[in-house]
Design brief:
By secondary structure, the chain is an all-alpha fold. It is built from 18 helices and no strands. It is globular and about 75 Å long. The two termini are about 15 Å apart. The relative contact order is 0.12.
Length: about 500
Amino acid sequence: MQQETGSLRQLALHGTLATAAAQAIRVALQLLTVILLSRWLKPADFGLVAMVMPVVALVSLFQDFGLQQAVIQRRAISAAEQTRLFYINLAAALAVIVVLLILSPLVAAFYRQPQVALLAAAWAVPIALGALAAQHLALLSREGRFGTLSAIDVAAAVSGFLVSAGSAFIWRSYWAIWAGTAVAAILTAIFAWRSSGWRPGSIRTKAETGDLLRFGANVTGFSFLNYLSRSMDAVMIARAYGATALGFYDRAYRLLLFPIQNINAPVTKVMVPLLSRMNGDPERLRRAFVETAGLLGLICIPGIATVVVVADEVILLLLGPHWAAVAPIFTWLGIAGLMQTLSNATGWLFIAQNRTRELLHWGIYSSITTLLSFAAGLPWGAVGVAAAYAISGWLVRLPVLYWVVHRIGPVRMRDLLLLQLPLTVAAGLLAGVVHGLRMTGLEGIGLILCSGVLAYAIALATLASYADGRAILKAAWRLTRSFRGARAYEEAEIRL
């Protein structure tokens, strides 16, 4: 047991290092893409792409029917089951593509934008490629080959960035965004097949997959509900106020919440299989969750707090003066982002502990309250939608989520509150300090840099003031030390 604990700890540390490094590169490239494309394309170009994204996201939910997560969570899976799931994925993707092609002209008619029809149909290419790679990526994750997964992510992100930026510079067209996405999907599929080494058997292969399909159905149900809460704001704004207003909202969203989600996603690749292995040791599972979620909070929350309190300066620096309308939207989404790093991490527990039915029930509540908040804020435009989303998140959704999470399993309400509240208080202290700095006449990039340094200093001091916070700092120190002697951790032959 001690040896396994050490191996899992090492795998978690090295996996977190690799995914963090890869994701830092991806987020940097995404932000650079936003900055460059914002200077070469018009707000309406981003608005057209944002109109397509809700329907693409909707049909993509059924692309693998949640089976990727089922493969990762399952302690043992046979070759026949793997083959069967691969062909189920392909069939689901084919159905999704047909639906997308049917919906494309309807979406264009809904928005009264004829360009949307061809753009939506073209997104069938990345969807098809994603289905081809899904099973191979899941198997790499099961095997703990997080370094390989990170390398694939980085290669795809770099290629997509180069194609998007080059196409935007040459064409000055919204098609540049699609081109980068398509190239990234092509390379991901190629590298996943080459790296995994697994090949599907005959299409006639038979295997009992009922449990896996039920697991996947619950995950897909939650993903569908989550889609509503993440996409309908764009639909409402576009319908009520048009492409330009949606373009402003989309820039704020992608500058802030999109990086948060992309930081959580690769860490999930590490934590779900590792926490699944720890189900037999509740206290070890609790410590692993608290330490990792705490590290994510320490990395993300002070950074979010910084850009919230100096939003005007950040938008002016990154996007230029003609995007000034983004700043108030950015501020409210940042207030929501202060809770999302840790609330997103609770999804690890639902999947790893096979609590997918609870996850589905939580998704129903969350989507209903989120949609109501969008409707309540819509009369005040994109800023009103962002404000209503943030306020309802803190007052209506977050308390219920923490109550649901702590009802079953070793993670207690006290753990969740000590992860969230101290860093949130630190963000509030930062706002007061920055207000004082403004009164001294400090502005521009100097104010941004000072705010960032102070944000992390206040966060570190806050964590050092109580025992659970010091445990998170110790985990951060272990992670830093392990970086110096880290080897390719996929050599650790841990078969989940």
